[in-house]
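FAQ: What does a multi-protein file look like?

Like this. Sequence, then tokens, then the next protein.
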Amino acid sequence: MKYFVLACLCVVALGILSLFIGVSDVTPATLLDPATSAHAVEMLMVSRLPRTLALVLAGAALAVAGLIMQMLVRNRFVEPSTAGTVEFAT
């Protein structure tokens, strides 16, 4: 349980860090500055937040898909190449 909480905190921290990484200068200081906060908030809402949410949801979907594949074949160590899904992709 301790490792699960630590992993969740790491994902949240990396998600917050992802909001402030990019070409445009969006930092917590620019969000609080009245002179530049309008542009920073717009950049955060239009570009950074959807990007971060899409990445988190895609990762969660891949985790669920892997879990379903492992449950279907009843093998903890199954991967796409051993299950034959690589051949169907081409």
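And here is the next protein:
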Amino acid sequence: MKNSPAERSVVSQRSAGVADSGLAEVFMLARTRDAVDLSIGTPGHPEVSADLVEEAARAMRDGRNQYEHPNGEALLRRRIAESLTAPTDPDTEITVTAGATEALYIALLGSVDPGDEVVLFTPGFDQFASAIKLVGAVPRFVPLRAPDWRFDPAELTAAFGPRTRAVLLNTPSNPTGRVLTREELDTIARLCERWNVTVISDEVYSNFVFDGRRHLSVADVPGLAERGVVVGSLSKSHAVSGWRLGFLRADPVRTDAFRRVHALTTLGTAAPLQAAAGRIPWTDAEAASAEMQQRRDLAQDVFSRAGMKFAPAEGGCYLFADISPLTGGRTDSLTFIRELLDRRGVLLTPGFPFCSDPELGAQYVRIAFNRRMETLREAERRLLAA
């Protein structure tokens, strides 16, 4: 406790408690080195639709340059609702956001209070824990066990309690590539019903599921549907991460609360880009999955021949690879990616930012395969030429 105004910190405890993601160095390396960049998830595949770009330019020329309705452009909300497997009312259950990041924060701000607990899995998307802390809640981590990254139902059950207000999921998963099964979602549903908990599900990779699987949304599962919040995005499916177009799908009561929070944060996102995304045909998810699976198959072949071990990615656009067969456990993942960049000119992401205990991620790297085939072939040449 500081005794005088002069001794107070100029930054809030909330902001001071947010850790760096650990990926800043990777982003800098990606920009400054002539590398085959398989680190960050910015899409190299699919390519941005020329029709989508032209529609955005047309919308700007036609004067769509002022505020859009905070809920989101009506045609885009309808297009999003039509793309989902669960029946959805675009007028009362869809909110367009400034990317999935804003959607995540709105869902948390609208669902939990300071001191509440939020259950989440580890390894998991590195922003989740920081987002939970930033809104004043407490993360409760449940480990996913290698090599197939599944949770122990007993450990999940033990994580729930009177202070649990939400559970945060990601399916398909960044970074592990796991797709939650109906059995796993049913287990989560029983716990959410028992403790009256909201489930927030980041499903931004739902267009990419492999080997005959179908994406199963929390909005499709009894016990979760009535308490489920879906976070979605066009960043990966449409390859427009810079456009910042995301969305929330929730029941009307939650949507009403989310829209009030949304109006006080960003108010809305770019009007001409929303108009463009609502006016072109969307890629069929089955075709999108088939094209991404080709890239997954090539990446798995290349990196297994390079000596890494991993469970096959069931969805998404990442491999989470064990480097210990190459390092003998003597080199951490950040040192490994630096050396790999120097020796082979291929850039990966270290695994520690995705784990609640960085030591557990020291022997893993994340590999993004949402790239052009030519890029993956160049990585193959550089890694396996010797």
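Q: Is there any per-entry metadata?
A: Some entries carry free-text notes. For the entry above: The radius of gyration is 21 Å.
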